[in-house]
Amino acid sequence: MRFRHPDGSTVHLAYCTNVHPAETLDGVLAQLRDHCEPVRRRLGRDRLGIGLWLAKDAAHALITDPAALRGLRAELDRRGLEVVTLNGFPYEGFGAEEVKYRVYRPDWTEPARLEHTTDLAHLLAALLPDDVTEGTISTLPIAWRTSFDAAAAETARAALATLAERLDALEELTGKSIRIGLEPEPGCTVETTAEAIGPLTTLAAPRIGICVDTCHLATSFEDPATALDALTAAGVTIPKAQLSAALHAEHPHLPEVREALAAFAEPRFLHQTRTSTSAGLRGTDDLDEALSGAVLPDGAPWRAHFHVPLHAPPAAPLTSTLSVLQDALTHLVGGPEPLTRHLEVETYTWQALPPESRPRNRTQLAHGIAAELILARDLLVDLGLKELP
């Protein structure tokens, strides 16, 4: 979906396909047919943007077979789909029974991460619509926090610097500018936008900036205006933003609230949980750990890294952080010039919701994704952007 910003530029809105993960190229082609095109039809659109997730094996199949890459581009066109952004965070296994900590490997200290992201950049340059010259890729925020020292930080910095050089060469070759956004996430070496400023200003590579995920922003109790103003002041770019909402519990000490939260503690993904105290941010790596006892103070609200469907907040006594998303979006695209032009709805947790809230079939999932995109569209229109055909 495309929108005209009041400054005349085009803002793209997509949804991320990691909600129906596929590890192989055949799986990617199937998800275009079975999921993405039905969402587009449900929206009544001739064209729909998708934030494509290409796992290691799918990316390798495309990078080594130009005919397969041309075939994917043709299939996107045939189904009325376009790609201006990729989700390069998960490397493989995102559809596994248990993802948890595996999603952070390989990290930016490992050569496989650099090579995979380089491949994604080349693929995206080939997949961009003919009238689009800029693509974006989100990636993990360097590494998970444990076993990370100064030597590891230097290795990661060097890898990102090499990536920036490769992106420069790619633009010279293709005329397409590909930018990378490190995506701050609770528990990682870069957990907040504030923690991203130091590494990125040291790197001094304009092609590499921040992907602002509004669920992560909310989980870490960051104020959107403060966070985005600080990034702007530091000269850190925002190649893309992911529109998502976290799980919010206003009174986590109450038994009924803990019971409601327990329904969201599931075995597939990590649901880092945070609370803001007078001594600073406190947290656990997962929601079940927070619920297990006195590990996390419960005198103030809790927020959990659980991507709640934008249009469907959980039932009371819980809610979502949709208001944080709205505030962030106002600052991202509501000003005289947009801070980013690539927006991506990223609710990958539909099948991790409590059983009564999960879609039971493809039709229900398509309906839910379309409803999220409609909500995001309405927010953009309210900010003065004009939806384009």
Q: Biggest β-sheet: count, sense, barrel?
A: 8 strands, parallel, barrel
Report how far the terminal alpha carbons are from each other: 8 Å
> What's the SSE pattern?
EEHEHHEHEHEHEHHEEHEEHEEHEHE
Mean pLDDT: 97
Strand proportion: 15-25%
Give the helix/strand class. alpha/beta
Model regions low in confidence, pLDDT < 50 over at least 5 residues: none
| Topology, number of strands | 15
Number of helices: 12
| Shape summary | globular
Radius of gyration from the alpha-carbon trace, in angstroms? 20 Å
In helices, the fraction of residues equals 40-55%
Strand order of the largest sheet: 2-3-4-5-6-7-8-14
Describe the structure.
- By secondary structure, the protein is α/β, with parallel strands linked by helices.
- Helices cover 40% and strands 19% of the residues.
- The chain has 12 helices and 15 strands.
- The chain has helices at 25-43, 56-63, 66-78, 111-127, 150-174, 193-203, 214-219, 224-234, 255-262, 287-291, 322-333, 362-382, and strands spanning 2-4, 10-16, 48-52, 81-87, 134-139, 177-182, 208-213, 240-243, 245-249, 273-277, 280-284, 302-308, 318-320, 342-345, 386-387.
- The strands form 2 sheets. It has an 8-stranded parallel barrel with strand order 2-3-4-5-6-7-8-14, surrounded by 7 helices. Strands 11-10-12-9-13 form a 5-stranded antiparallel β-sheet.
- Helix 1 links the parallel strand 2 (10-16) and strand 3 (48-52).
- Helix 1 (25-43) packs across helix 2 (56-63) and helix 2 (56-63) crosses helix 4.
- The longest helix has 25 residues, at 150-174.
